[in-house]
Design a protein that fits this description.
11 helices; mainly alpha; Endonuclease Iii, domain 2; Endonuclease III, domain 1
Length: 214
Protein backbone atom coordinates (compact mmCIF):
# COMPACT_ATOMS: atom_id res chain seq x y z
CA UNK A 1 0.00 0.00 0.00
CA UNK A 2 1.20 3.59 -0.55
CA UNK A 3 3.29 4.66 2.41
CA UNK A 4 4.70 1.21 3.14
CA UNK A 5 8.42 1.23 3.83
CA UNK A 6 10.25 0.18 0.65
CA UNK A 7 11.73 -3.30 0.97
CA UNK A 8 15.48 -3.61 1.23
CA UNK A 9 17.12 -5.35 -1.73
CA UNK A 10 17.82 -8.47 0.33
CA UNK A 11 14.23 -8.54 1.57
CA UNK A 12 12.92 -8.16 -1.98
CA UNK A 13 14.99 -11.11 -3.18
CA UNK A 14 13.71 -13.27 -0.32
CA UNK A 15 10.11 -12.20 -0.94
CA UNK A 16 10.39 -13.11 -4.63
CA UNK A 17 11.98 -16.48 -3.90
CA UNK A 18 9.41 -17.45 -1.25
CA UNK A 19 6.36 -16.29 -3.21
CA UNK A 20 7.44 -18.20 -6.33
CA UNK A 21 8.18 -21.33 -4.26
CA UNK A 22 4.79 -21.14 -2.55
CA UNK A 23 2.90 -21.17 -5.87
CA UNK A 24 4.72 -23.53 -8.26
CA UNK A 25 1.57 -23.93 -10.36
CA UNK A 26 1.19 -20.19 -11.01
CA UNK A 27 0.51 -19.34 -14.65
CA UNK A 28 -1.77 -17.32 -16.87
CA UNK A 29 -5.24 -18.76 -16.34
CA UNK A 30 -6.82 -17.50 -19.56
CA UNK A 31 -7.40 -20.36 -22.00
CA UNK A 32 -5.87 -19.76 -25.42
CA UNK A 33 -4.34 -21.53 -28.41
CA UNK A 34 -2.43 -18.63 -29.93
CA UNK A 35 -1.09 -15.16 -29.10
CA UNK A 36 -4.08 -13.69 -30.94
CA UNK A 37 -6.51 -15.54 -28.69
CA UNK A 38 -4.64 -14.56 -25.54
CA UNK A 39 -4.55 -10.92 -26.60
CA UNK A 40 -8.30 -10.83 -27.07
CA UNK A 41 -8.98 -12.82 -23.89
CA UNK A 42 -6.84 -10.45 -21.85
CA UNK A 43 -8.77 -7.43 -23.11
CA UNK A 44 -12.00 -9.19 -22.17
CA UNK A 45 -10.62 -10.00 -18.71
CA UNK A 46 -10.57 -6.35 -17.63
CA UNK A 47 -12.82 -6.12 -14.55
CA UNK A 48 -13.96 -9.68 -15.18
CA UNK A 49 -12.89 -13.07 -13.85
CA UNK A 50 -10.72 -15.39 -15.90
CA UNK A 51 -13.34 -18.10 -15.36
CA UNK A 52 -16.04 -16.02 -17.02
CA UNK A 53 -13.78 -15.11 -19.94
CA UNK A 54 -12.93 -18.78 -20.44
CA UNK A 55 -16.65 -19.50 -20.77
CA UNK A 56 -17.03 -16.88 -23.49
CA UNK A 57 -13.93 -17.28 -25.65
CA UNK A 58 -14.67 -20.75 -27.09
CA UNK A 59 -17.85 -19.34 -28.65
CA UNK A 60 -16.08 -16.15 -29.69
CA UNK A 61 -13.17 -17.85 -31.44
CA UNK A 62 -15.35 -20.46 -33.10
CA UNK A 63 -17.35 -17.62 -34.66
CA UNK A 64 -14.32 -15.42 -35.38
CA UNK A 65 -11.21 -17.63 -35.63
CA UNK A 66 -8.82 -15.06 -37.12
CA UNK A 67 -8.03 -11.36 -36.69
CA UNK A 68 -9.52 -10.72 -40.12
CA UNK A 69 -12.80 -12.38 -39.18
CA UNK A 70 -13.02 -10.56 -35.86
CA UNK A 71 -12.26 -7.22 -37.50
CA UNK A 72 -15.24 -7.73 -39.82
CA UNK A 73 -17.59 -8.87 -37.02
CA UNK A 74 -21.07 -7.44 -36.77
CA UNK A 75 -20.90 -5.24 -33.70
CA UNK A 76 -24.29 -6.22 -32.31
CA UNK A 77 -23.55 -9.93 -32.70
CA UNK A 78 -20.13 -9.50 -31.11
CA UNK A 79 -21.55 -7.59 -28.16
CA UNK A 80 -24.07 -10.37 -27.61
CA UNK A 81 -21.32 -12.98 -27.41
CA UNK A 82 -19.16 -11.04 -24.92
CA UNK A 83 -21.93 -9.32 -22.93
CA UNK A 84 -21.42 -11.41 -19.79
CA UNK A 85 -17.83 -10.15 -19.41
CA UNK A 86 -19.11 -6.67 -18.59
CA UNK A 87 -18.47 -3.31 -20.28
CA UNK A 88 -19.25 -5.18 -23.48
CA UNK A 89 -19.68 -2.18 -25.75
CA UNK A 90 -16.25 -0.76 -24.92
CA UNK A 91 -14.69 -4.22 -25.08
CA UNK A 92 -16.27 -4.97 -28.45
CA UNK A 93 -14.78 -1.76 -29.82
CA UNK A 94 -11.37 -2.60 -28.35
CA UNK A 95 -11.16 -6.17 -29.61
CA UNK A 96 -12.40 -5.23 -33.06
CA UNK A 97 -9.82 -2.46 -33.17
CA UNK A 98 -7.03 -4.76 -32.02
CA UNK A 99 -8.05 -7.39 -34.55
CA UNK A 100 -8.11 -4.83 -37.36
CA UNK A 101 -4.66 -3.63 -36.34
CA UNK A 102 -3.33 -7.18 -36.44
CA UNK A 103 -4.93 -7.86 -39.79
CA UNK A 104 -3.74 -4.68 -41.49
CA UNK A 105 -0.41 -3.87 -39.83
CA UNK A 106 0.88 -7.33 -38.93
CA UNK A 107 -0.55 -9.73 -41.53
CA UNK A 108 0.79 -13.23 -41.16
CA UNK A 109 3.10 -12.42 -38.24
CA UNK A 110 2.01 -11.60 -34.72
CA UNK A 111 3.90 -8.65 -33.13
CA UNK A 112 6.49 -9.74 -30.56
CA UNK A 113 7.58 -6.46 -28.99
CA UNK A 114 6.01 -4.08 -26.49
CA UNK A 115 6.35 -1.20 -28.94
CA UNK A 116 4.47 -3.04 -31.67
CA UNK A 117 1.72 -4.32 -29.39
CA UNK A 118 1.06 -0.87 -27.96
CA UNK A 119 0.17 0.38 -31.45
CA UNK A 120 -2.93 -1.81 -31.40
CA UNK A 121 -6.20 -0.18 -30.24
CA UNK A 122 -7.31 -1.40 -26.83
CA UNK A 123 -3.88 -2.79 -25.90
CA UNK A 124 -2.03 -1.36 -22.89
CA UNK A 125 1.10 -2.45 -21.10
CA UNK A 126 -0.70 -5.02 -18.94
CA UNK A 127 -2.20 -6.81 -21.95
CA UNK A 128 1.06 -6.62 -23.88
CA UNK A 129 3.03 -8.03 -20.93
CA UNK A 130 0.60 -10.94 -20.55
CA UNK A 131 1.14 -11.91 -24.18
CA UNK A 132 4.90 -11.34 -24.20
CA UNK A 133 5.50 -13.28 -20.99
CA UNK A 134 3.10 -16.14 -21.66
CA UNK A 135 3.43 -16.71 -25.40
CA UNK A 136 6.96 -15.54 -26.15
CA UNK A 137 8.82 -16.23 -22.91
CA UNK A 138 9.96 -12.63 -22.57
CA UNK A 139 10.52 -11.23 -19.07
CA UNK A 140 7.30 -9.37 -18.28
CA UNK A 141 5.72 -7.89 -15.18
CA UNK A 142 1.93 -7.93 -15.33
CA UNK A 143 0.41 -5.37 -12.97
CA UNK A 144 -3.08 -6.71 -12.41
CA UNK A 145 -5.34 -5.98 -9.43
CA UNK A 146 -3.53 -8.47 -7.18
CA UNK A 147 -0.01 -7.40 -8.14
CA UNK A 148 -0.94 -3.76 -7.64
CA UNK A 149 -2.29 -4.42 -4.15
CA UNK A 150 0.39 -6.83 -2.98
CA UNK A 151 3.36 -4.89 -4.30
CA UNK A 152 2.32 -2.08 -1.98
CA UNK A 153 1.62 -4.34 0.98
CA UNK A 154 5.01 -5.99 0.62
CA UNK A 155 6.82 -2.67 0.46
CA UNK A 156 8.04 -3.18 -3.10
CA UNK A 157 6.50 0.11 -4.24
CA UNK A 158 4.95 3.23 -2.78
CA UNK A 159 2.87 3.96 -5.88
CA UNK A 160 -0.63 3.02 -6.99
CA UNK A 161 0.08 3.82 -10.65
CA UNK A 162 0.47 0.60 -12.70
CA UNK A 163 3.33 1.85 -14.87
CA UNK A 164 5.25 3.14 -11.85
CA UNK A 165 4.67 -0.16 -10.05
CA UNK A 166 6.00 -2.02 -13.09
CA UNK A 167 9.17 0.09 -13.06
CA UNK A 168 9.60 -0.30 -9.30
CA UNK A 169 9.30 -4.07 -9.54
CA UNK A 170 11.71 -4.18 -12.47
CA UNK A 171 14.24 -2.36 -10.30
CA UNK A 172 13.75 -4.71 -7.33
CA UNK A 173 13.54 -8.08 -9.09
CA UNK A 174 15.92 -10.01 -11.33
CA UNK A 175 14.71 -9.85 -14.92
CA UNK A 176 14.58 -13.63 -15.24
CA UNK A 177 12.02 -13.74 -12.39
CA UNK A 178 9.67 -11.05 -13.69
CA UNK A 179 7.07 -13.31 -15.31
CA UNK A 180 7.17 -16.04 -12.66
CA UNK A 181 6.85 -13.52 -9.83
CA UNK A 182 3.94 -11.72 -11.50
CA UNK A 183 2.04 -14.98 -11.91
CA UNK A 184 2.89 -16.17 -8.40
CA UNK A 185 1.90 -12.85 -6.84
CA UNK A 186 -1.47 -13.02 -8.58
CA UNK A 187 -2.02 -16.52 -7.20
CA UNK A 188 -0.89 -15.35 -3.76
CA UNK A 189 -3.46 -12.56 -3.87
CA UNK A 190 -6.22 -14.97 -4.82
CA UNK A 191 -5.30 -17.70 -2.33
CA UNK A 192 -3.81 -16.02 0.72
CA UNK A 193 -3.42 -12.23 0.68
CA UNK A 194 -7.02 -11.25 0.05
CA UNK A 195 -8.01 -7.59 -0.09
CA UNK A 196 -10.10 -7.58 3.09
CA UNK A 197 -8.94 -10.51 5.18
CA UNK A 198 -5.35 -11.58 4.47
CA UNK A 199 -4.58 -15.02 5.87
CA UNK A 200 -1.41 -14.02 7.68
CA UNK A 201 -1.01 -17.40 9.39
CA UNK A 202 -0.57 -19.05 5.96
CA UNK A 203 1.68 -16.41 4.39
CA UNK A 204 5.22 -17.59 3.53
CA UNK A 205 6.57 -14.02 3.71
CA UNK A 206 4.84 -12.80 6.85
CA UNK A 207 8.17 -12.18 8.60
CA UNK A 208 9.24 -9.90 5.72
CA UNK A 209 5.93 -8.08 5.17
CA UNK A 210 5.62 -4.50 6.49
CA UNK A 211 1.82 -4.88 6.37
CA UNK A 212 1.61 -8.09 8.42
CA UNK A 213 -0.42 -6.43 11.17
CA UNK A 214 -3.23 -5.04 8.98
Amino acid sequence: MPGSKPAEKSDAAAIVRKIIAAHPDARCMLDHKSPFQLLIATILAAQCTDERVNMVTPVLFKRYPTPEALARADTAELEGIIKSTGFFRAKAKSIKGAAEGLATRFPGKFPETMEELLTLPGVGRKTANVVLGTCFGQPAIVVDTHVRRLAGRLGLTESSDPETIERDLQAEIREKDWTAFSNALTFHGRRICAARKPRHDECPVRDLCPSRDI
